[in-house]
């Protein structure tokens, strides 16, 4: 791609296939001011790491909050306070020292023991979803596998009744919340999203109150009753509890579903790779390497935001204080200075795990180990049960949701046969 000046990640053609755009920026303008988004895109791996390792100069809290709701925050807050139990910020995106306290409290819900004990239940959920589909011979991978799988898993973890909530409601809640940081919603869309956010909080709040009185074996109980020793505020406040449960519901659902759908797109478009995986499906190490390469190659989150708290030079570009930047994880993962032949999926890549799909530094995704395990289990069961996986539509007909933060396929029609 040749840069002519004035290009924006908002462009529908760039949004559909942003990698040539990222490559051009890395070569010519690695910290690029995007006029359509009014922020700087950080596209090289080393520059991304500079930002991720310096949470003081590059504030995540300001990066999320300064342009939250895309200019409609006051009206959104009024609606939430009136109809949704309160306007509660995404406190999980805070800066140190508050971040340190919240991170320690959240870790109670993501111990290695808890993640490991979830694997049999996750495998059961995946098999229950895939088995009926194998007789049909076709499906929409996002609608029929990824979205219901991750929705059911996060509901079970949190202690929600999946049959009561359902995939569509979780999808609506997810879309509404992501729109507040996606920087593309109109006022009309904000009003619809606000209704969904009120519905979500009106569902969460009574369940938090229930766990306060009667703890269960679920993540909400872990969060509500988590305590730190020798702290001025040893427990999460009510607002912090709501914000954390809301964040876990969305983060544990949308990005993992997007990642799994991207993995199935890779399976459907690379028959040689698929044959190799059929022959080695019981090799846990190889399947794990495959998952890591897909996470690097097609990350579900393409970029997240920071605010420069002072004048700073990055990648040869002078960034004024209080400017917004977007760390382009997908571009960093595609940087040939870090990953040889980056657009090629290589199962023998020695540094595949160095990708930035889950971030780095103090804001490394707290649920990364759980997401990896979910995707690996799903990949194994899909490969074991579905043969001849192919796209049911031309590749160019696939579309992504209109948001900068994530790269989520709207649908992924597949055909296949039952594997013996």
TrEMBL record:
The keyword Iron applies. Keywords: Heme, Iron, Metal-binding, Monooxygenase, Oxidoreductase. GO terms for biological process: cholesterol catabolic process. It comes from the Bacteria. SUPFAM superfamilies: Cytochrome P450. Belongs to the cytochrome P450 family. This is Cytochrome P450. It comes from Mangrovimicrobium sediminis.
